[in-house]
Amino acid sequence: MMEKSFVMMKPDAVQRRIMGKILTRFEEKGLQIVAAKLLKIDEDLAKEHYGEHSEKPFFNDLVSYITSSPSFAMVIEGDDAISLIRKIVGATNPKEADLGTIRGDFAMDMGRNIIHASDSPASAEREISLFFNEDEICEYKIADDSWIYE
Ligand code: IDP
């Protein structure tokens, strides 16, 4: 089933200048970028995005990390994109993430794990609408789709 996921390179990915390498992984897999923007997340948006963690001991550090410098927010589309992107991203703790995943290859600490990706269709819908207006999402056909999908 074609799905859209909300994916965001966090401030450490932007600062470490590895955005291109990360983007390439999604593109080379055959996924399609349908929206993208660099933005400095403010405290309200950070708290809303990570609302489910508001009672956790790491919440304040998480909010300062996410608001510390710009992030690169995207909507990525593809067949089963939500679970597929979670696999490409790897486990939350980069030390436990398999090598070959983005977190497994590029990160060391839970609090500097470089990328976010929606974990369910309901989160994807909520997060996409939190970060993007409908008119910022581009519906377009990729010319070589028949070489990606049977
Ligand atoms: P996810 O990003 O893999 O979906 P969540 O459990 O939803 O993982 O946590 C959201 C984010 O909160 C993580 O990506 C990470 O940046 C941060 N985080 C989660 N657990 C910890 C922790 O124990 N210490 C520090 N940061 C954490």
What does the model show?
The protein has 150 residues and is an alpha+beta fold. It has one domain: Nucleoside diphosphate kinase-like domain (Alpha-Beta Plaits), CATH 3.30.70. The protein has helices at 11-15, 19-29, 43-49, 59-67, 81-89, 102-106, 121-131, and strands spanning 2-9, 32-39, 71-79, 115-117. A 4-stranded antiparallel beta sheet has the order 2-3-1-4. The two termini are 13 Å apart. The model has no long low-confidence stretch (mean pLDDT 98). Bound molecules: inosine-5'-diphosphate (IDP). Inosine-5'-diphosphate (IDP) is lined by residues 53, 58, 62, 92, 110-111, 113, 116, 119. Inosine-5'-diphosphate (IDP) binds at residues 53, 58, 62, 92, 110-111, 113, 116, 119. Keywords: ATP-binding, Cytoplasm, Kinase, Magnesium, Metal-binding, Nucleotide metabolism, Nucleotide-binding, Phosphoprotein, Transferase. Belongs to the NDK family. It comes from Methanobrevibacter arboriphilus JCM 13429 = DSM 1125.
